[in-house]
Design the sequence.
């Protein structure tokens, strides 16, 4: 791991938490963007601020920060993780096309190069806090909660490392200070995948015992709870049992998901699928991050909206995904008895389609999306045509129509990036239980709850499915329900089907208009999509290998 990645990037806790000092010697300057170790360890308020700032991630250099978001995941940054898989492409590249085309390399990681360094930097920061928490004056209950939060954050960072790189370096508590020995060979020894998963899950079990069931109103979403730790365990246990990892059992994965369900704390949101992602206070969210609109990276309406609305058309859905939405009657467009009409392809589709994707003819902001040619305002014939979608579709999910597209940066408002929600837990359970025992009644109940919730209303799955048929239906349900939420990239890899899904062309549609008649012609929207087996894991950036004096083992094939 990069020595740079282990530097204390400050015990800087926030711009608000600055100190100033003056001295007779004007050369003795105290930095105003950070507080000292002594101050943090003697003041429980500052120490807690240090802990909560670990949720927001590490401070990156300008080069490292380009194309990334602080915190867990990329959230609302320009190129989303969906544009590295068969959900979307990023219209203007943003360092995604080389990954789609199988050209990722240790020297050129595109948007996927920051996980290793930022994760280990965060782990070191957590270790620092855990190593010193006992000397901070505070109540025993408060100390226990902060310990639980720190263990949750450390486990989340290992979750990011494991699902991207496979084998990881288990630092434990060995590195917490910049004075620690950073040359020891054990700091570059990558543990087997099972050891990494076992460690992260053990951390979460300990965190669960220490964390509160709920947060107060000031931190309702942004800090870990028992449910958040258990949800992360559910995801890791599901990964562990999957073919790529082969490091756990499906029974363990089912039990981890069932434990969250048995809390009887979370429910599926019934106010409409689209509203789920713009309603922060809802019972489906287990753990999320609330964003303020004042920041550049949350203006997703302008980043992803149609060019005819003076937006930038960023992460544009591909036809591959559109084709996988069922009809409202539950038939698939490829079924022999389908109700699909290729001359009217967007009629009577799964309601989640309309909440996720803007298509030709979709109502939008008091107008109608027009991706047809000639003359469609959201086509190449419209304004800002350099932002025209290459696929003929635009993203709808996550976007709040009450927020402006133009000049959005100073508008008050908030949006939430959801890391864990109850629908994922139900689908985790259904998948694991089906693999463990077959499609029993509890599997049907979990999947059908997601499909039939108020605001979606899709038909129940047909009775009598075999285990293999149920597996296919659960995978299809995850593709639709969790679209654009950073699951697909990891799902197709853990299932070991990426060699199929990621080698297929990224399709779009050309829509022609003659009078009141539309024609739909399939097209390849991004040429050269390619996937090799080595890409089941990301390459460790070359700079990290070099910083270890080549002691760090690279992933195979790179």
Sequence:
């Amino acid at each position: 791991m990069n020595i740079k990645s282990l530097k204390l990037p400050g015990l800087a806790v926030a711009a608000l938490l600055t100190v100033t000092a003056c001295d007779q010697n004007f050369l003795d300057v105290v930095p105003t963007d950070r507080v000292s170790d002594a101050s943090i360890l003697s003041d429980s308020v500052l120490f807690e601020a240090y802990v909560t700032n670990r949720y927001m991630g590490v401070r990156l250099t300008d080069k490292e920060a380009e194309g990334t978001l602080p915190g867990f995941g990329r959230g609302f940054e320009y190129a989303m993780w969906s544009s590295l898989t068969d959900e979307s492409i990023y219209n203007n590249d943003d360092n995604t096309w080389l990954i789609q085309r199988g050209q990722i390399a240790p020297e050129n990681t595109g948007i996927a190069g920051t996980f290793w360094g930022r994760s280990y930097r965060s782990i070191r920061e957590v270790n620092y806090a855990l190593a010193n928490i006992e000397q901070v004056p505070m109540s025993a209950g408060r100390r226990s909660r902060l310990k639980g939060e720190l263990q949750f954050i450390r486990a989340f960072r290992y979750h990011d490392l494991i699902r991207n790189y496979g084998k990881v370096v288990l630092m434990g508590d060995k590195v917490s200070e910049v004075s620690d020995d950073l040359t020891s060979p054990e700091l570059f020894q990558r543990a087997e995948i099972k050891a990494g998963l076992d460690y992260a899950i053990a951390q979460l079990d300990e965190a669960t015992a220490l964390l509160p069931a709920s947060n107060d109103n000031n931190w309702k979403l942004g800090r870990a709870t028992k449910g958040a730790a258990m949800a992360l365990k559910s995801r890791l246990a599901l990964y562990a049992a999957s073919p790529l990892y082969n490091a756990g059992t499906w029974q363990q994965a089912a039990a981890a998901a069932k434990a969250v369900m048995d809390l009887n704390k979370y429910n599926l949101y019934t106010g409409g699928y689209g509203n789920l992602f713009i309603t922060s206070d809802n019972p489906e969210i287990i753990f999320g991050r609330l964003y303020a609109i004042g920041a550049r990276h949350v203006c997703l309406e302008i980043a992803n909206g149609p060019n005819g609305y003076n937006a930038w058309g960023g992460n544009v859905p591909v036809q591959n995904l559109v084709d996988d939405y069922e009809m409202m009657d539950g038939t698939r467009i490829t079924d022999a008895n389908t109700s699909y009409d290729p001359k009217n392809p967007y009629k009577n589709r799964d309601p989640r389609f309309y909440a996720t994707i803007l298509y030709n003819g979709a109502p939008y902001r008091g107008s109608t999306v027009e991706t047809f040619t000639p003359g469609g305002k959201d086509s190449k014939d419209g304004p800002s045509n350099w932002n025209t979608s290459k696929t003929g579709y635009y993203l709808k999910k996550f976007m709040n129509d009450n927020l402006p597209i133009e000049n959005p940066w100073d508008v008050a408002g908030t949006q939430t990036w959801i890391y864990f929600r109850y629908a994922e837990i139900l689908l985790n359970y259904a998948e694991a239980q089906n693999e463990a025992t077959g499609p029993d009644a509890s599997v049907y109940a979990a999947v059908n709850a997601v499909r039939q919730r108020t605001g979606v209303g899709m038909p129940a799955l047909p009775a009598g499915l075999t285990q293999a048929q149920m597996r296919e239906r659960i995978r299809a349900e995850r593709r639709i329900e969790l679209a654009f939420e950073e699951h697909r990239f990891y799902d197709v890899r853990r299932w070991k089907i990426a060699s199929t899904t990621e080698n297929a062309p990224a399709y779009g549609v050309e829509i022609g208009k003659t009078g009141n008649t539309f024609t739909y012609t399939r097209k390849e929207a991004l040429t050269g999509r390619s996937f090799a087996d080595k890409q089941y894991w990301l390459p460790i950036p070359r700079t990290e290998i070099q910083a270890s004096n080549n002691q760090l083992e690279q992933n195979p094939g790179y």
About this structure: The first strand starts at residue 88 and ends at 90. Residues 208 and 226 are 5 Å apart (CA to CA). The domain at 3-76+112-278+539-547 is CATH 1.25.40.390 (Serine Threonine Protein Phosphatase 5, Tetratricopeptide repeat).
